[in-house]
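FAQ
Q: What does a multi-component entry look like?
A: The components come first, one per line:
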Amino acid sequence: MTDETPAREAGPGGAAGASRRALLVAAGAALPALLTGCKGVQALGTPPPPPRDIRILRVAITAERLMLARYTTAITQLTAAPASVLAAVRAVQAEHAAHLSQLRSRLIESAVSPAPSASRPPVVAQGGSVASVLAALAQAEQAASDRLLGELPGLPPALAQLFASVAASEATHVPFLTQAEAAAG
Amino acid sequence: MTAGQAAAITALQEALAAEQAACYGYGVVGAYLPAGSAEQATAVTDWVAHMRARDQLTALISGRGGQPVAAAVAYQLPFPVTSGGTAQLLAATMEDAVARAYLTLVALPETGLRSLGAQQVRAAALRAESWRGTTEAFPGLPASSLRS
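Then the predicted structure of the entire assembly, as tokens:
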């Protein structure tokens, strides 16, 4: 691994994170080295398998995309729901959009990104009651939060902090959605 | 003591200081909530959670050869608490501070401390949600660490 990464000036983290640095935006200073790194990889044709951090980050990005799709579907199912419930669901959806944006900002994706078209639409209860739609969302939130916490060991510090914060946000959506439904009656 | 061990103790001390402030603050919160109300019962539950966390952090610091920071006799509140409403706002504000402090633990490489920090960020965010009734996209994360 180390011989394919020629010495670059100044990047933080020393030799250990060289391949990680090629894809993860660990710090602003790493950016120039990172861009040249990507070009070099593409010129060689076959990129090396992505390091573990990158794989985990990509999975988290895909999970956020699916979560956003869940909310888009849920909103179409909640047209008859009280306005306060819809407002709550939209507020949570906006937070997921922010999660996705921040997660994506930690990844420099190559021009050919495989993920989005391959993602299938999420399964949401068909034409369910307001309660069942919200319960399905809450269940997905709890699972997403737990999954992110499980990925923490070994991640770079800044990425671990982002994952922990997103996991906390997702956990708070569970009582928030429940309360929105209770308040609407 | 290695740099890593020192960093762990510094992060634990920061979390301990936040927990001590929360223990003090919840005493104020409880005093302004109606006796026997559901809100007061929640405040007591949260207060106990913070005291337990404080004791756990104290033990962790001592176990690593550190000297746990002492709690202040009194704390300057971020704003005057004069009612049940401002008391609830204080509780939420303290939980934000606790979440920020525990996120420092998450930056440590040690799996156990990172996990403890993440669990506590989540617990603090849940308590903040219960007081405020709203959620946040990035509990504990300073705006400066978000990328535009």
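Q: Is there any commentary attached?
A: Sometimes. For this entry: Chain A has two domains: 1-49, 50-184.
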